[in-house]
Amino acid sequence: HVYEPFRKFDSIAFGESQSEDEQFENDLETDPPNWQQLVSREVLLGLKPSEIKRQEVINELFYTERAHVRTLKVLDQVFYQRVSREGILSPSELRKIFSNLEDILQLHVGLNEQMKAVRKRNETSVIDHVGEDLLTWFSGPGEEKLKHAAATFCSNQPFALEMIKSRQKKDSRFQTFVQDAESNPLCRRLQLKDIIPTQMQRLTKYPLLLDNIAKYTEWPMEREKVKKAADHCRQILNYVNQAVKEAENKQACYSPQT
């Protein structure tokens, strides 16, 4: 079986699972769009400075979630799907590198859809209450699912990065595959070893963004809900950090001292 370089059909398949506003080919902006440019001047004039700040942070939360889903889709479709389709790694090696990527992707796709629904619900682009939604996403069953899936994925990260490094040294077919996949414009010059850690980075971002939303929220009940959701995000992060620590300790025990 001759190794096939990246062809157009991959990027076509890539676009099919998304709504038209998220076609990856033209989704090139990397910074959140300026929220103030998304709303009319009349709307802006009617808002206090703190409310404008609040809207900007909500916009950042939603936009960066969408960007995270995009990165996970790149990991899934440019790397995982192709490497399994072309039989470059065995199923157990695939697991060692990509772990439970499907679960992680599904959770964030779901979260992104819910964020889009909140945006649609608020026709003017000014999002009034978001506390209840944040609690639904980050506490209760939402928290449990994200916590356990992310702990599995992130605690696998040290092993995955180690394996990618050693396979690239030893296995020229894998090395050629990785180089070719990384040269795909969808990767935006990121390497596989940069993309895998983005899940952990995303989890560290949630508490900061939610704390900021709370800081600019003037209604006491709403602020309490947002603060509570931020605390749940910290609990998720602590749980995942603990799982990563345990995995690293395990890895230190198994790997021969250099």
From TrEMBL:
The lineage of its organism: Eukaryota, Metazoa, Chordata, Craniata, Vertebrata. Residues 53-243 form the DH domain. Pfam families: RhoGEF. It comes from Marmota marmota marmota. InterPro entries: DBL_dom_sf (IPR035899), DH_dom (IPR000219), GDS_CDC24_CS (IPR001331). One of its GO terms (cellular component) is cytoplasm. This is DH domain-containing protein. One of its GO terms (molecular function) is guanyl-nucleotide exchange factor activity. It comes from the Eukaryota. GO terms for biological process: G protein-coupled receptor signaling pathway; intracellular signal transduction.
